[in-house]
Amino acid sequence: MATDPVSKLQLVCRHIRSFQDFPKKGILFRDICPLLKDPAALTAATDLFEDHVRANYPDVDLIVGLDARGFLFGPLLAQRLGIGFVLVRKKGKLPGRTVSVAYDLEYGKAEAEIQEDAVTAGQKVLLIDDLLATGGTLFAACELMKKQQAEVLSCMVVIELKELNGAEKLKSQVFSLVQY
Q1: Burial class (CB in 10 A: 0-12, 13-18, 19+), 149
Q2: Bridging pattern class, strands 173-179 and 17-20
Q3: pTM, full prediction
Q4: Which residue among the candidates 69, 80, 111, 151 is catalytic per the annotation?
């Protein structure tokens, strides 16, 4: 099992595979399924996120995960940190009163929402997802946190596609394990 940060990151990288022309021609898809399948690789990714948060954000109150792959990493991290986990979902997927924001996608529009009582004013949050591409979904989640008057400390992702400049769209810091 990987024990130091460099070997952990190498393990994570070895468990990300690429598929050309998926989901459509011209797209190189980065697949995290092998990372999720391998307990040592998933532990390494969670360790790297945990180390980053403990070193930089000791006062974080909540981890906020984006639909749907943020739900895979967020609860593991939140449990390790001893803090809560909150869901940002696609519109219409959460019960009770919700707050939502609309955002643009490459192919249209979408809405993200959070339960109204999930985050309170002044709470310090970290957003997590698997991938940062153009930044639309993470930007929408940041806007939701702003509506709730929460403080976004940073956005964290397993993979950042640097050439798409998604980090420039966000008004917060971005921490990515792997950059392409």
Answers
A1: exposed
A2: unpaired
A3: 0.95
A4: 69
